[in-house]
């Protein structure tokens, strides 16, 4: 198709992208017809809302990863190393991920399915701060996959997942398609965060979309209303999180493998605080490891300053507060390093 670049620069760009896109055959045929229509619209004088609509739709179609996928990390040893480095305990979660990688390896070795097995769908269930979201990040890292997060808390319309049809003036794809365009692979890890906290008014509609998203028998033909062509979501590793199951439809729970994220004991918090959180927070504060040392007997007071807390967030905030105080004193040349003891601890704890 001959198009003058000076006059139709955006159409030429779409043409070039289309030539290199691996679209499904029927969709490729449809886009060629729409491209010809775009050229006709461009020859008309004046602004055309239809032209903008068609151009935007073509840009979205071309930009989706219809056949692009990342290769999973094959090494169980490497995956275990990453999971252990990021998380203390949670052995049942780690074991489930290692089992999935092992099955994928066996299937690939026997050439039963070059694309690997259908990805599992997990629900991390636990109180706030128990590591649900960070574990999802670690799973993506261990698998060597791209990661996308969709916040479900407060979601008030299923259209946010499913998309709005092109016939509407405010048409746009749903969050699933937006994540896929951003990560540029069709087999990422996608976190559906806080699925128990969607609004009551939209709960029934959103749960019905989640059933389709999470069901391996249905999600290979997922239809976003804007894209208007089935997209295979079966290779996506979906991970959902929730504080409890009260707000989740039974049909959705039936399609999820529930993994409970236990509350941390004080002993576990001390290990995590000392070995994981503190080194990271010290580095983020611009300090060096020797600038702040915590004696062993201060940790019980740091992990429980206000009573029992199921998660790690209060401990993380407390350590951040201590490091900020030390950083300020260091910049003011009032100290070079600090050893936190039971005697001076109260001077550095947050004031509640």
TrEMBL record:
GO terms of molecular function: ATP binding; ATP hydrolysis activity; ATP-dependent peptidase activity; serine-type endopeptidase activity; single-stranded DNA binding
AAA+ ATPase domain ranges (all copies): 118-266
Classification via InterPro entries: AAA+_ATPase (IPR003593), ATPase_AAA_core (IPR003959), Lon_lid (IPR054594), Lon_Prtase (IPR027065), P-loop_NTPase (IPR027417)
Segments forming a coiled coil: none
Gene3D superfamilies for the chain: 1.10.8.60, P-loop containing nucleotide triphosphate hydrolases
GO biological process annotation, one example: protein quality control for misfolded or incompletely synthesized proteins
A UniProt-annotated Pfam family: Lon_lid
Superkingdom as given in the UniProt entry: Bacteria
PANTHER family, per the entry: LON PROTEASE, LON PROTEASE HOMOLOG, MITOCHONDRIAL
Name this polypeptide is given: AAA+ ATPase domain-containing protein
Organism in which the protein naturally occurs: Candidatus Curtissbacteria bacterium RIFCSPLOWO2_01_FULL_42_50
């Amino acid at each position: 198709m001959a198009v003058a670049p000076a006059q139709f620069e955006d159409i030429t760009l779409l043409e070039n992208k289309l030539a290199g896109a691996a679209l499904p055959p029927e969709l490729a045929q449809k886009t060629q017809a729409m491209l010809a229509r775009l050229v006709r619209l461009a020859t008309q004088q004046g602004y055309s809302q239809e032209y903008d609509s068609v151009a935007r739709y073509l840009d979205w179609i071309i930009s989706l990863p219809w056949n692009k996928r990342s290769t999973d990390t094959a090494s169980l040893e490497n995956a275990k190393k990453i999971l252990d480095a990021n998380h203390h305990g949670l052995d049942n979660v780690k074991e489930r991920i290692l089992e999935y990688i092992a099955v994928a390896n066996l299937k690939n070795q026997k050439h039963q399915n070059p694309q690997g097995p259908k990805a599992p769908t997990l629900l991390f269930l636990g109180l706030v701060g128990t590591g649900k979201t960070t574990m999802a990040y670690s799973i993506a890292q261990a698998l060597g996959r791209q990661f996308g997060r969709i916040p479900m808390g407060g979601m008030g319309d299923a259209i946010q997942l499913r998309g709005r049809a092109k016939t509407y003036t405010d048409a746009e794809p749903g969050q699933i398609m937006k994540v896929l365009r951003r990560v540029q692979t069709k087999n990422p890890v996608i976190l559906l965060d806080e699925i128990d906290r969607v609004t009551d008014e939209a709960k029934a509609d959103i749960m019905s979309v989640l059933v389709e998203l999470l069901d391996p028998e249905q999600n290979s033909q997922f239809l976003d209303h804007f894209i208007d062509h089935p997209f295979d979501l079966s290779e996506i590793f979906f991970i959902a999180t929730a504080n409890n199951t009260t707000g989740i439809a039974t049909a959705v729970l039936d399609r999820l493998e529930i993994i409970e994220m236990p509350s941390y004991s004080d002993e576990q918090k001390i290990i995590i605080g000392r070995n994981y959180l503190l080194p990271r927070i010290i580095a983020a504060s611009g300090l060096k490891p020797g600038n702040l040392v915590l004696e062993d007997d201060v940790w019980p007071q740091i992990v429980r300053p206000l009573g029992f807390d199921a998660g790690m967030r209060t401990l993380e905030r407390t350590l951040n507060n201590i490091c900020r105080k030390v950083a300020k004193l260091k910049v003011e040349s009032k100290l070079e390093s600090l050893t936190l003891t039971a005697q001076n601890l109260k001077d550095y704890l947050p004031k509640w």
